[in-house]
Amino acid sequence: MTIDVWMQHPTARFLRSEMLASLRRWTGGSIPDGDVPIEATVASMDAAGVQCGLLSAWYGPGGQDLISNDEVAEWIRLYPKRFAGLASVDLDRPMDAVREFRRCIGAGFVGLRVVPWLWNAPPTDRRYYPLFVECVQAGVPFCTQVGHTGPLRPSETGRPIPYIDQVALDFPELVIVCGHVGYPWTEEMVAVARKHQNVYIDTSAYTVRRLPDELIRFMKTGTGQRKVLFGTNYPMIGHQHALSGLDGLGLDEAARHDFLHGNAERVFSLEANR
């Protein structure tokens, strides 16, 4: 069994966003630029043996509604055994953001995702903090991006230290899942995950063949085995491509189990929500 904790089902609005223009040069034109049926996303998962994916909405500054929470909810309704939802909110409208997040939790979403570079605001920005309280009270993770940005935006917001470290100190009960492995600050990200009980790393935006050595070493430790989750960043990386070379990681059976699905089931309480 495999669970993808970072993916999107792309709308045409999302695919035509200017933020994706710089990513296309890395993907050899593999990112589509028109409407994609939900069946195509399910087929990508099926081809790689991925049973479940966490679909995220995408809101951005200036009222950008790239993938709505309601669209995510509809895809989950169509494939309730295959998807769970991560909410997105408008960080510039704090009270509306809290209300929308509460609505999504009431609809069964399993977490919140905010991408800092999109807002040019690190997770220590005061606009996040009411949302962190809501995550703790609802018992769901806060998902975010760490590391440099693929789109041509400043990368500073993705530094694990000081930003993730400080949030974990301020909210020790908050479960934080850090996507995109933190490169070129992967050692910082590993250190923060070791330090804080509720900080995790997901491997989205990297195929398993390209994972940094320091992260692979961490995955083979007792602490790291429970701290790293599989993700793709689909449609930027397809599921088969992301998993190609999995055996080369050298994970034992228990570590492989936790990486591919065990950690995701525990962190997102997926067994209780399926």
Automatic annotation (TrEMBL):
InterPro entries per UniProt: ACMSD, Amidohydro-rel, Metal_Hydrolase
Keywords assigned: Hydrolase, Lyase
An example molecular function term from Gene Ontology annotations: hydrolase activity
Pfam family, one: Amidohydro_2
Domain Amidohydrolase-related: 68-269
The keyword rRNA-binding is assigned to this record: no
Protein name stated in the entry: Amidohydrolase
